[in-house]
Design a protein that fits this description.
Chain lengths: ~120, ~110
């Protein structure tokens, strides 16, 4: 299947700093990418939908100024957690599709720990 | 609003058993349904994608069926192995919305 690469896999940062997470589609062009957050032993919670060249659509309750999403090319989307706090510690996963209603592929996830 | 339910929430079986995981969805107007596997602390691996016009898909020891009219899908795992231990997630694509996920079934295959 198609490959989605997410980097870094783990990051520890100090409270108040910003962290950028990258999501790349390696062998296909992703017109749409999705960012999820997952709490321990819980299912995925959609944070936002990112379309190449346009602003991301955020789910209700997700602060767009805190979770900045950029989808500048058809193979790369980034999620920046700004002014991180311990409560932002979580597992973040990205997903990409090469078209509408096509198979979704997921990155390996990023474990963020804010200390 | 589409809702996806997976039963059971957890399952423990001895190695070699065949097993069935269930997924149900409330709105039958779907484009496709996808089954994923997630290992602890990892991302999701796509197992099978069933288009709305299909009844089933097979990959190795896995077989997924889809009954769109009744809003049900099953994932059948034959001759289970300890390496099959993971959380299995079902997700529905209803068109212009992102995938809607179930809460998953946590499978443990005991050697």
């Amino acid at each position: 299947g198609a490959v989605v690469s997410q980097h870094p896999s783990r990051v520890i940062c100090k409270s108040g700093t910003s962290v950028k997470i990258e999501c790349r589609s390696l062998d296909f062009q992703a017109t749409t990418m999705f960012w999820y957050r997952q709490f321990p032993k819980k299912s995925l919670m959609l944070m936002a939908t990112s379309n190449e060249g346009s602003k991301a659509t955020y789910e209700q309750g997700v602060e767009k100024d805190k979770f900045l999403i950029n989808h500048a090319s058809l193979t790369l989307s980034t999620l920046t957690v700004t002014s991180a706090h311990p409560e932002d510690s979580s597992f973040y996963i990205c997903s990409a599709r090469d078209g509408k209603n096509t198979e979704a592929f997921f990155g390996q996830g990023t474990r963020l720990t804010v200390v | 609003k589409q809702e996806v339910t997976q039963i059971p929430a957890a399952l423990s079986v001895p190695e070699g058993e065949n097993l069935v995981l269930n997924c149900s969805f409330t709105d039958s107007a779907i484009y496709n349904l996808q089954w994923f596997r997630q290992d602890p602390g990892k991302g999701l691996t796509s197992l099978l994608l069933i288009q709305s016009s299909q009844r089933e898909q097979t990959s190795g020891r896995l077989n997924a069926s889809l009954d769109k009219s009744s809003g049900r899908s099953t994932l059948y795992i034959a001759a289970s192995q300890p390496g099959d231990s993971a959380t299995y997630l079902c997700a529905v694509d209803s068109g212009n919305t992102p995938l809607v996920f179930g809460k998953g079934t946590r499978l443990s295959v005991i050697a």
